[in-house]
User: Fold this.
Amino acid sequence: MHHSPTPRMVARAATLFKTAAIALVIGPIACFSAAHAAGAPSYAKQPVVVEYDVDPSWPQYPPEVSQKGWVSGMAIDAKEQIWFFKKGPDPVQVYTTDGRFVRTWGKGRFVDPHHLRIDPDGNIWLVDFGRHVVEKFTPEGKLLMTLGTPGKSGEDQSHFNRPTDVVVTPAGDIFVTDGYGNRRVVHFDKHGRFVKAWGEYGSGPGGQFVVPHAIVVDSRGRLYVADRNSGRIQVFTQEGRFVEQWTNVIMPWGLSITPDDQLWVCGSTPHWWYRHGKYQEYKDQILMRFSTDGRVRQVWGLKLGKSKDALKPGETIGVHCIVQDSQGNLYIGDIYGERAQKLIPVTKR
Assistant:
């Protein structure tokens, strides 16, 4: 015979259901609490990622040395001194890794400083896109060689059109990214004699560039070109043969490479340079480390500042160049923030 449930039976069933539901929730919590009590916290006791803290005291500018102007180029020499190139009254500045001032030179010489490189012999190479030249100096500032024709643009063996960067191989070969006005890589021998050039405007791999903005060479002699406005890094042999390209990872502004072939890149996350009728230089600020096979090995984000007059330590507005010393410290320069900064790796709790 069928009997309808009484109100008492319904209430008891509801109580049993609630008890079971509470047990399902409390059970995992109890297990987590027991594990936590047994010494298993929710954070890594031995960190597997590297964070960075900024050193707000680096560099220590002397009173007579100007801090004005964008910081667009940066390199580290054999003594682990940090060199950077500024658009300002004191364009070439040198500091130790602990921030002590070493020297400055170049006052009144440059128009639009861009990247700075140091060759295997310790010479300083400076790229001035406003004067359409790449120049080689001694560390004390004596001019040794000029590539390009000062003050005159062009696209031939003796003229650049707003060049962006330069790299010198151990054998002395010189490669220039002739990037803002022309879209090509130009090869010279160690005496500054023209060898060849390759590249034209376009988005195709290998023979085309949008803005070749920076260049470095690895221990095997391969060239890495930051084609900034197309959001890719293109890899070539020194003969100009295309090897591969890395896309959809970063808008690369600056490149540097360590002796053990760790490629550091600064820039922003990928985006179209021109969209909806507007140009966008960057939407954020990031640093990335690649191995030479194109694998991303490390990423670190920087806070995008709003105004150079209200920047906090660690913020940037247009990070443009990056180097790393033997202790793992990073040094960055930005253009609109007009400053160089040191980032110290945090590896212990």
Observations:
- Confidence is low (pLDDT under 50) at residues 20-26.
